[in-house]
Amino acid sequence: MTDQQRQMQIGDACRKVADARWEKPRAQLMAAEDFVAVLRRKLRGAG
Question: Band of the pLDDT at 46, cuts 50, 70, 90?
Answer without folding.
Answer: confident
